[in-house]
Design brief:
Strand 1 and strand 2 form a beta hairpin. A four-stranded mixed sheet has the order 1-2-4-3. The longest helix has 26 residues. Helix 1 crosses helix 3. It is of the alpha+beta class. The protein has one domain.
Length: about 140
Amino acid sequence: MPLLKVAKLLWAAPCSAVGLLFAAVPLLLGGKGGWRHGALEVTYRRNQASCGKLAHALPFRGIVFGHVILAVTDEELFRIGPHERVHVEQYERWGPLFFLAYPLSSLWQIFHGRSPYWDNHFEIQARHRSNEVHREGRGV
């Protein structure tokens, strides 16, 4: 493994540790996980029909902590995976500082009368880069 990749894994490791803690919940409840595209991808169920009320009530369909991507279903992971993998790259760049930078970007948007999610710098970048990947037909 190249030294730069190891450095990125180590820099994001504290964030990935948080992701592993959260990943334990769906895995203990029968979910599945696998290492793909440079991240541990964990899903709770195969599709929406097999999810319970709690899974339907979540305010998000996927979230990333370091090199751990959590998605409610396999179907949703397929759909949002490219976007979430851009967040993995952001964690590789920002490391533990991402836990500060992301909410600060949201606060900045709130103070300027904008959406804390849709106008967040990191979300805009993830949407833009994942759309580029989709148009070009390549992986992140």
